[in-house]
Amino acid sequence: MIGSVINFISLGAVVIVSAQPESCPHGWIQRGSSCYAFINDVKEDWMVAMSYCNGIHAKLVEIETVAENEFIRLHLMDNNLQGEYMIGLSDVLLEGDWVWTSSQTNPIYSDWYPGQPDNYHTHEDCAILWREHGYHWNDAPCTVPYNFICEKELSDGTDIIG
User: 3-state DSSP call for residue 94?
Assistant: First the structure.
């Protein structure tokens, strides 16, 4: 009997628990499988903005498709939100090699304003959505405080235990 119990325990068990799909936290906006928080009540530099997003289990937004970019641009314009918004794209490690900070991958999609990125005065290593030009992308100094956008992925409601 004890041998049977030990064999059962050593085999392990995997339990799949299915629940309702998660929804976005209060104040976040859902699009597809992502939730977005538009932080515009306090401006922060790139490092603080990235830390803030990480602290709420999110990342600085990574815009991967034209549809996602248009959703964000339209939200900013439709709600008459002011100022520039920092996104999670940087070439701080290697000039000209733009990567998404959470995945360290190069963007497949981009929406740079014509002539950007230009590394003006050799200090522009972080990407922003530039209000003056319809929220197309621009490179900017990482040390300047901007509004920012956090993004978190929704789970599908399935947890694996064991």
Answer: coil
Q: Rounded to two decimals, what is the model's pTM? A: 0.82
103: Cα within 13 Å, side-chain hemisphere: 12
Contact 101, 148 (CB under 8 A): no
Q: Give the C-alpha separation, 12 to 20, whole Å.
A: 26
Task: Please give the domain boundaries of the chain with CATH numbers for all domains.
Answer: 25-154 (3.10.100.10)
Type of residue numbered 162:
G
Residues of the chain with pLDDT under 50: 2, 4-19, 157-160, 162
Which tokens hold the place of 65?
A: 């498709």
User: How far is 74 from 134, CA to CA, in rounded Å?
Assistant: 9
So what's the pLDDT on residue 160? 46
Is residue 60 within 8 A of residue 149, CB to CB? The reply is yes
Look at residues 77, 30, 36 and name the one whose alpha carbon lies nearest to residue 56.
36
